[in-house]
Design goal:
single chain, alpha/beta, Rossmann fold, Serine Threonine Protein Phosphatase 5, Tetratricopeptide repeat, 8-stranded mixed β-sheet, globular
């Protein structure tokens, strides 16, 4: 999604937080980072990507997304292992501050987790390249470091993904306490090596980087790496104490408490994250979730409505985000505005055709209103979207019985018994009152970055689909794909399809363009066309995520054997890919209970 979208969203919220002292938000700049990465595989096909965008308005000639890996310890004492992750973090933020787009640390970790690769694994260049291709990255940054505890040596390289090329090594060394300045030189040299016409001098580049105390940075990185919660909190608090105006530790502390469902402790830390900071949208969204958890629907509505209004006022995309719509609906429902809640939930359901939480929440609204037949319809849709969710079945059966559809309820009960066992459904004790239903509401705790992937163009070209003319011809397919994605996420399917087809005219075997077309066809219920496009995508580049999407379409077409074959191939490609394993288990259960083949 466009950077302009979030400029407006954040600045609008900032104005609200400052008693609306400043109504203008169009020209403010900010960094944008989403570190939550559980992506659905329909739109970007399980690219668990978090993109950090720059606040700079400079045009740079070499567009593309960077993917940074931790720097390997090439001989430093184990107590300095943290430097490897630290150099990765500095490189990510250094690239972004200088005008580049770069995937976050979390985005990389989630992609590696799909393939069962430990966070600290030493990866071959081939593996790095495969991960980068799955994430649609354009450049890979990797390297190593060495230190005797007093001096530090850093080596770094850029690997171009398409066409594949390994750029010359960059080398810097100096006193360990100058780590920040040293890595800043490394990043600048990487950029100037990749782009001979790079527009920033070393001194100009250095001025963009935030000066930090080395001890604060070390505590921050150690906190991020800590496996023990108490150690993590201790280290992050020490980083915040040493650098009280540095937002990163504040966000990390808020996020740590948020993960523990300790909203009382999380909120003060999230409040320390400036509205123009790269993690602001996560802090704002999490704050809204906390307000729902703390039974403060009025404050939650203000937060989510602000995010939503900012998106709606964007002249470029006008896109909606289903997670925001869902939580806004639940806040309004608790405030007694069921009509507005139904509208927002209906929009969320339409945007994300795979997620069962949205029709489930619609069913809860209908239950609250005593509209049992309508509730049953919504719960049936939830079951269709997620057949492995026992709670969806339980509510479907409950609504059908209340609607007087006893035979249908018994039939669903029999299906559920085969899938979950005779006592596999949760017992529902409902009195129809709002309070008894609130505990079943499905609040979205994280934003899905599939719909928030940023446009890579600069602001002055965001309103046109002909920006390809301003860059090298080799970049044209990527530009069309990026433009197509923002059109798709804004709900403009025809425009999106034109962009993807334009990319394929320039590069007929572009895997990304084919899989995006498949997404459009699937949303339009043209399943045969979607299958054809996915096969073309796989012919260009094999992918476990794409095979799982293909398997799900085969299931929609009642072609279980074909679906099972695709799932087996996906598991072979990525043995630890959770979605592939879950779908295989579902198919095995269906087979063992005599389900339809």
């Amino acid at each position: 999604m466009l950077l302009g979208t979030l400029r407006q969203s954040f600045t609008l919220l900032e104005c609200w937080q400052m008693n609306k002292r400043h109504p203008s938000f169009r020209n403010l700049s900010l960094i944008f980072l989403f570190a939550i990465c559980s992506l659905r595989p329909v739109s970007l096909l399980a690219m668990p990507a978090t993109v950090l965008a720059t606040p700079q308005n400079h045009a740079h000639s070499e567009e593309g997304i960077y993917l940074v890996f931790p720097f390997e310890n090439a001989g430093a004492p184990p107590r300095l292992d943290w430097i490897g992750e630290g150099l990765e973090e500095l490189t990510i933020h250094g690239l972004a501050k200088a005008g580049q787009l770069v995937y976050s640390h979390d985005g990389r970790l989630n992609e590696m987790d799909r393939y069962g690769l430990p966070p600290s694994a030493k990866l071959s260049r081939a593996t790095m390249l495969h991960v980068a291709q799955e994430m649609d990255a354009d450049y890979i940054v990797f390297g190593s470091f060495n230190s005797d505890g007093k001096t530090l040596t850093v080596n770094a390289r850029v690997l171009r993904v398409s066409s594949i090329a390994l750029l010359p090594v960059v080398y810097e060394n100096g006193p360990l306490e100058t780590l920040m300045e040293l890595q800043s030189k490394v990043i600048w040299r990487l950029l100037s090596t990749n782009d001979r016409s790079y527009y920033l001098s070393l001194s100009e580049f250095a001025k963009l980087q935030r000066p930090l105390r080395l001890d604060a940075f070390e505590q921050y990185i150690r906190g991020l790496l800590a496996n023990d919660d108490e150690v993590r909190l201790r280290d992050l608090k020490e980083a915040a104490r040493l650098e009280p105006d540095w937002p990163e530790p504040a966000f990390a502390l808020g996020d740590a408490y948020y993960a523990r469902n300790d909203c009382a402790a999380a909120l003060p830390w999230f409040a320390k994250v400036p509205a123009t900071h790269e993690r602001s949208v996560e802090a704002i969204f999490a704050t809204g979730v906390c307000r729902l958890r703390l039974s403060q629907p009025d404050k939650a509505e203000e937060i989510f409505a602000g995010l939503q209004e900012g998106l709606q006022h964007n002249s470029v995309s006008g896109a909606d985000l289903p997670e925001i719509l869902n939580n806004l609906a639940l806040a309004r429902l608790r405030l007694g505005n069921s009509a507005a809640a139904m509208t927002a939930l209906g929009r969320a359901r339409d945007i994300d055709p795979d997620e069962d939480d949205y029709p489930f929440n619609l069913g809860l609204v209908s239950v609250q209103q005593g509209e049992w037949a309508t509730a049953a319809t919504h719960f049936a849709e939830a079951v269709q979207r997620e057949p492995d969710n026992a709670e969806d079945y339980a509510f479907l059966i409950y609504a059908q019985e209340k609607a007087g559809k006893k035979p249908e309820a018994e039939q669903e009960r029999a299906v559920a018994a085969e899938a979950f066992g005779e006592k596999g459904l949760p017992a529902l004790k409902l009195d129809g009152k709002t309070d008894s239903l609130n505990k079943f509401e499905r609040v979205k705790k994280e934003l899905d970055t599939t719909t928030l992937r940023l446009d890579l163009q600069d602001p002055h070209v965001q309103n046109t689909t002909t920006a390809v003319a301003s860059g090298p011809e080799k970049d044209a397919p990527a530009r069309h794909i990026r433009q197509g994605r923002q059109e798709l996420n804004a709900g403009r399917f025809d425009s999106a399809e034109r962009e993807f087809r334009a990319a394929l005219v320039l590069e007929p075997q572009n895997a990304s363009a084919h899989r995006e077309l498949a997404d459009i066809y699937r949303r339009r219920s043209k399943l045969d066309d979607a299958v054809a496009e996915l096969k073309l995508s796989l012919a260009a580049r094999d992918s476990a995520a794409v095979r799982i999407v293909l398997a799900r379409i085969y299931l929609e077409q009642k072609k279980t054997d074909l679906a099972r074959a695709e799932v087996d191939k996906a598991v072979k490609l990525a043995p630890n890919y959770a979605e592939a394993k879950q779908l295989r288990e579902h198919l095995e259960r269906t087979k063992s209970t005599g389900g339809a083949q």
